Amino acid sequence: MAKIAIFLADGFEEIEALTVVDLCRRAGLTIDMVSVMKDVFVKGSHGIEVKADKLIGDVKFDEMDMLVLPGGMPGTTNLEKTDKLMEQIRAFDDAKKYISAICAAPGIFGRAGLLNGKKACVFPGLEGELKGADVQMTETTVDGHILTSRGMGTALAFGLAIVERFCGKETADELGKKVVYRA
């Protein structure tokens, strides 16, 4: 089964991160919540503290099938300042392994030069951060190995798009019905 890592930094958007974790685990996927901070306890942008499963130094990136970046401020900024994470995002992109981001976090891909000629979406008003991208206004955009989404209100669509990548459309649609998402 697929292995996914979702990265948490102080100031992450709780709904965006935890919705993805919940849906992936319901689908039977392995998803690790990974702190890029010095501790496994990470405080979200709305003061909700979450205990990550591990620290970034404990991740075996060669075993991962997807890296996921939630948005939120200053979470997105803190993720982008994490050299080890940025190195791995570039390596995954080079290898055409899945990278995903929601809300403000797709801007990280844009600033890193990973979106040239790719379709992508981002939180409204941040479209200029998607350097080189064909900007979309869809809830979630999938272009090859890159998945992007627009914000907290699209977290279910984003999580289900991730489930679809590894479990198929039928499983993602069925899971969507079970959680009463556009049932």
Protein described:
33% of the residues lie in helices and 22% in strands. With 183 residues, it is α/β, with parallel strands linked by helices. It has a domain of 122 residues: Class I glutamine amidotransferase (GATase) domain (Rossmann fold, 3-Layer(aba) Sandwich), CATH 3.40.50. The chain has a 7-stranded mixed beta sheet with strand order 5-2-1-6-7-11-10. The chain has a two-stranded antiparallel sheet with strand order 3-4. The longest helix is centred in the N-terminal third of the chain and has 13 residues. The radius of gyration is 15 Å and the shape is globular.
CATH topology of the domain at 3-98 and 152-177: Rossmann fold
Number of helices: 6
CATH architecture heading of the domain at 3-98 and 152-177: 3-Layer(aba) Sandwich
CATH class of the domain at 3-98 and 152-177: Alpha Beta
Gyration radius, rounded = 15 Å
Largest sheet: 7 strands, mixed
In short, what is this structure?
The protein is α/β, with parallel strands linked by helices and 183 residues long. The chain is built from 6 helices and 11 strands.
What does the secondary structure layout of this molecule look like, with pairings?
Blueprint: E1 3-8, H1 14-26, E2 30-35, E3 41-43, E4 49-51, E5 54-55, E6 66-69, H2 75-80, H3 83-94, E7 98-102, H4 106-111, E8 119-120, E9 134-135, E10 140-143, E11 146-149, H5 155-167, H6 169-178
Parallel strand pairs: 1-2, 1-6, 2-5, 6-7, 7-11, 8-9
Antiparallel strand pairs: 3-4, 10-11
Helix pairs in contact: 1-5, 5-6
